[in-house]
Task: inverse folding
């Protein structure tokens, strides 16, 4: 296996037998992603990540990681406003967002969460309310400031993916025994509570060392349920959102061409490094609608097929793998039964997409061949 060592910092069973469900979902084998509209926002100062969309205010929230700035565009394609985050400022959310920022219902304010705290701002960047976590020893959670890592309001609390190094090194059994996936950020008392250990049957309890990015959960919340995929592991876990977080079911994701990293022996793993495997399959995003569970995935490459990439330069490798083994969208019903697989249009970013108001909004893929002075977002229907 060809690995790349990097520091951590860089890195059909159609429904049930009832006639009612059959009326709601038909011809699932023929489902397609259909573009119905698009938004083009002028921008030429770096690469933007999609955070949120609000149809009521017709606003788009994006993040520029290079500038550590929040960019707010609109559906009309006007020049966006930009809010530069200065970590030393008293109203700053800190060094980096832990996940995608999110608009309120009306789209007049947005909330950013971080390892420092929870902060809500108006569209000019003025702090409306918020502040630092009041936990004596705060874990160093890892995150992505884009829609594939979304947080969820549940009353006055925020449920968010929350993983990281932890107290124990990843080449010890204790790391996997104590690994938690999620956290509650209580916005009234400013407390942080970690919860939801690895499933007792999880592949990651196989006695080997695993890289943290291979374990990071993909999470969605809908109708008082938590839908979770544990990193690269091909299984969907569904839990009650109420303590003690009863496991409702665990559904294997059976894909004949899915290949994923199997870990390495404890004694061979360096706990200070990430052994990045570009060939591993991966689940990139999960969203739940009123009818479907939607999962984007990269299938990975089998051991037999990897040899042909031995002489490919690393800078070219990822794009070549994506071209040879394209990502696709897995469609399941709300019980986790596989319904369809759809290949993504080439212009879609397969990781950065979000469901809002019964539509799917996709960020456009970055053009690596020609620099562009705009970012595009596609409004898509699943038909």
Result:
């Amino acid at each position: 296996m060809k690995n790349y060592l990097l520091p951590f910092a860089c890195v059909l069973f159609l429904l049930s037998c009832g006639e009612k469900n059959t009326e709601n979902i038909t011809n699932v084998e023929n489902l397609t992603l259909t573009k119905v509209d698009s938004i083009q926002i002028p921008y030429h100062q770096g690469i933007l990540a999609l955070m949120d969309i609000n149809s009521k205010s017709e606003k788009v929230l994006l993040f520029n990681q290079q500038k550590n700035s929040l960019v707010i565009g609109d559906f009309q394609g006007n020049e966006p406003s930009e809010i530069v985050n200065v970590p030393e400022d008293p109203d700053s959310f800190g060094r980096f967002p832990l996940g995608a920022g999110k608009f309120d219902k009306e789209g007049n304010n947005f909330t950013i969460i971080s390892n420092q705290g929870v902060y809500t701002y108006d569209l000019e960047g003025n702090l409306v309310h918020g502040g630092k976590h009041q936990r004596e020893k705060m874990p160093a959670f890892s995150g992505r400031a884009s829609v594939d890592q979304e947080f969820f309001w549940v009353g006055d609390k925020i449920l968010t993916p929350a993983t990281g190094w932890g107290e124990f090194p990843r080449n010890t059994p204790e790391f996997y025994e104590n690994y938690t996936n999620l956290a509650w950020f209580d916005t009234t008392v400013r407390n942080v509570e970690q919860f939801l250990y690895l499933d007792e049957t999880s592949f990651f309890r196989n006695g080997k060392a695993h890289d943290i990015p291979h374990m990071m959960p993909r999470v969605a919340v809908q109708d008082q349920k938590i839908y979770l995929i544990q990193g690269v592991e091909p299984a969907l876990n569904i839990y009650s959102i109420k303590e003690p977080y009863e496991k409702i079911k665990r559904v294997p994701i059976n894909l004949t061409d899915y290949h994923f990293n199997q870990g390495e022996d404890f004694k061979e793993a360096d706990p200070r490094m990430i052994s990045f495997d570009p060939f591993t399959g991966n689940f990139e995003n999960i969203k739940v609608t009123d009818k479907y569970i939607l999962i984007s995935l990269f299938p990975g490459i089998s051991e037999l097929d990897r040899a042909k990439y031995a002489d490919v330069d690393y800078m070219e490798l990822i794009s070549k793998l994506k071209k040879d083994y394209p990502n696709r969208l897995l469609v399941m019903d709300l019980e986790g039964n596989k319904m369809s697989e759809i290949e993504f249009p080439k212009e879609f970013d397969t990781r950065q997409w979000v469901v809002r108001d019964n539509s799917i909004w996709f960020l456009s893929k970055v053009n690596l061949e020609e620099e562009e002075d705009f970012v595009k977002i596609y409004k898509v229907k699943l038909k």
